[in-house]
Design a protein that fits this description.
One of its GO terms (molecular function) is hydrolase activity. Keywords: Glycosidase, Hydrolase. This is Nucleoside hydrolase. InterPro entries: Inosine/uridine_hydrolase_dom, IUNH, Ribo_hydro-like. Residues 3-290 form the Inosine/uridine-preferring nucleoside hydrolase domain. By secondary structure, this protein is an alpha/beta fold. It contains 13 helices and twelve strands. The strands form four sheets. It has a four-stranded parallel beta sheet with strand order 3-2-1-4, sandwiched between helices. The radius of gyration is 18 Å and the shape is globular.
Length: 306
């Protein structure tokens, strides 16, 4: 299965990127950059630098649109660090982004069709733009998005999850027009946790130590904002895992809408229409975390040896 990641490259995006590269059932054919944890430009830079660190310099990166008036929220800077990577400094990337993210998304869906899955882990801005620019995109794209909260509270307001809160109109457009969409939201991602006991296992390799430093920052931030969890949520990596193995989650079929407040809820106007969205409400957390750890350990060791 070919995969495109649409990243606002902060810490859990960095984990999602590594996991996609490590997964034998996924071929990462491109990364598109969006905003959220960091501005678009910094997210693109982070993605390029991480791909070089992970020995995947052949994966192209594309620049997506931003939202007028966007600025990084103080809570995002606290959780992800000023540079989005827990203030861990990576060497400047040796290459630049290759072009426009929306055009790349349109080309990729035309070329690969059902053999491709798109995993947005930030605001829906780029995905909505692709749907608006290419009429066939919504009909043919398979999308597994990290975002939203249906049965649990939001993480920026009592109702809104951070990604949809950034651009609720775009999220609503995607909900209403996508033909094959899975929402992997806080309902399941906050049940999948990583701790320093996990990251300590990475420190036997050079790349693993860098990732451990990045993720330990994230874990410390969670210890302040959400001490009851006992670790950091694996939001974006879980969406990648579901793209590869949908059996990891239990879903309900439900047409959704996104309100201006960022609340994701069933759409009363389409309750009787065939559902085009699956909402993950249960997860095999132990199986997922075990798989993530196994694949990342192998990737960090093999990359460090190169």
């Amino acid at each position: 299965m070919k995969i495109i990641l649409d990243l606002d490259t902060g810490i859990d995006d960095a984990l999602a990127l590594a996991y996609a590269l490590a997964h034998p059932d996924l071929e990462l054919i491109g990364v598109t950059g969006t905003y959220g944890n960091v501005p678009v430009g910094l997210g693109v830079r982070n993605a390029l630098a991480l791909l070089e660190l992970l020995g995947a310099e052949d994966v192209p990166v594309f620049t997506g649109p931003t939202r007028e008036g966007f600025s990084v929220a103080p809570i995002s800077a606290f959780i992800h660090g000023r540079n989005g990577l827990g203030d861990v400094l990576l060497p400047p990337p040796r290459r630049a982004a290759q072009g426009d993210a929306v055009d790349f998304l349109l080309r990729a869906v035309r070329e690969h069709g059902e053999d491709l899955v798109i995993v947005p882990t930030g605001p829906s801005t780029s995905i909505a733009a692709a749907m608006q620019k290419g009429p066939d995109f919504a009909r043919n794209a398979r999308i597994v998005m990290m975002g939203g909260a249906l049965t649990v509270p939001g993480n920026v307001t009592p109702y809104a999850e951070a990604n949809v809160y950034q651009d609720p109109r775009a999220t609503d457009y995607v909900f209403r027009h996508a033909h094959d969409l899975t929402m992997v939201g806080l309902d399941v991602t906050l049940r999948t946790l990583l701790t320093t006991e996990n990251t300590t296992q990475w420190r036997n390799s050079r790349v693993g130590r860098i990732y451990a430093d990045i993720v330990d920052y994230y874990i410390r931030a969670y210890a302040t904002t959400s001490p009851h969890l006992g670790g950091c949520g694996l939001h974006d990596p879980l969406a990648v895992a579901v793209a590869a193995d949908p059996s990891l989650v239990t879903c309900i079929d439900l047409n959704l809408r996104c309100e201006e407040t960022g609340r994701t809820i069933g759409d009363p106007e389409r309750l009787s229409a065939p559902a085009t969205t699956r909402v993950a409400v249960g997860v095999d957390a132990e199986r997922f975390v075990d798989d993530l750890m196994s694949k990342l350990m192998s990737l960090y060791t093999s990359t460090s040896a190169c």
